[in-house]
Amino acid sequence: MPKRERLDPSIFHLPVDKMRAGYYSDKYFVRAREILLADNYRPRVTMQVFGKTHAFLGGIDEAIAILKLCALEWSDLAVRALYDGDEVGPWETVLEIEGPYDAFAHLETLYLGVLARRTKVGTNTRRVVEAAFPKEVMFFPARHDHWLVQTGDGYAAHIAGAIGVSTDAQASWWGNEGVGTVPHALIGVYGGDTVLATQRFAEFIPEAVQIISLVDFENDCVKTSLAVARALGDRLYGVRLDTSELLVDESVQAQMGHFSPTGVCPQLVHNVRSALDDEGFDGIKIIVSGGFSVEKIEAFEAEGVPVDAYGVGSSLFKGRFDFTGDIVLKDGQPCAKVGREYRPNPRLELVG
């Protein structure tokens, strides 16, 4: 089998000088390197890295880039690794580093951190994608975290199967761009007129861009969806329902009594779908967002709610997927702390 492609280290734009100096690393790792260098003590060790939960791996190529560019000498190291997107089990070794410890001691904080972050995002995204399958999932959490995490998070989501990301930064590592809808802010700027805002969007945005209009601005998704559909016709790709979890849409209020009516509930989606179909707009897609998690998507799919795509945000940042690194061999002999013995993994591939 041919080897799978890895991202080139240059794509990550690492602050190499600061990483080499230990600026971003836990101080005890930096001091450990200083002691070894001062003592001229260079035993060859094997470091194994593992997580403790079932996950879909992310951050491996980024971790490799850190080792390649920021180790004292990459040529001193033999690195074996799994691939981004691989499914891994608890305690499975995902990365193995062999070489003089002083060559990479200062990098442990960095590669463990990127593995933890990207694996969390990738695993949460994969679970959402699997829950929604075969429906599309749009990755919309950029506003819920620091902008510096966007590039790697977007790539982790892409590997996990998200069909679209919301910023150009998130899409940059595979040469794409962000996707989006007509925002509430644009509707507000046009005086709360969703139709006018969507018309202006369609007028000035390239024709290749799919027009998806947010239709909850007036809390009447049926009325607004129909108005936008009538005005734009075939130019309208879809409508997005994003009703606040504290509100009950106008179309649902008369139906209350036998279900939870707030936010984007199943009945609201049915109401919009029926209204569009009744006027011949059966080709217009319905995208839902606002508080969607794996559990909510699973519930919608179990009920057969006529959703075409899900926009998912802050739930993709939840949970912990920590990684640990242990020295397990010194000069080929066991030296692991109790309970952390060497666990070779035949799935690992040597990194060139």
What is the helix/strand order? HHEEHEEEHEHEHHHEHEHHEHEEEE
**Which CATH C-level class of the largest domain is it?**
Alpha Beta
Q: Strand share of the residues?
A: 15-25%
Tell me what the CATH architecture of the largest domain is. Alpha-Beta Barrel
Largest sheet: 6 strands, antiparallel
Strand order, main sheet: write it out: 13-12-1-5-3-14
Tell me the radius of gyration.
25 Å
Number of strands: 14
Mean pLDDT: 95
Structural class, judged by helices and strands?
A: alpha/beta
Say which CATH homologous superfamily of the largest domain is assigned.
Answer: Aldolase class I
What does the overall shape look like? elongated
- Helical content class: 25-40%
In CATH terms, what is the fold-level topology of the largest domain? TIM Barrel
Number of domains: 2
Report the uncertain regions.
none
Brief synopsis:
By secondary structure, the chain is of the alpha/beta class. It contains twelve helices and 14 strands.
Search tags:
alpha/beta, six-stranded parallel sheet, elongated, 352 residues, six-stranded antiparallel sheet, 2 domains, 14 strands, single chain, nicotinate phosphoribosyltransferase, TIM Barrel, 12 helices
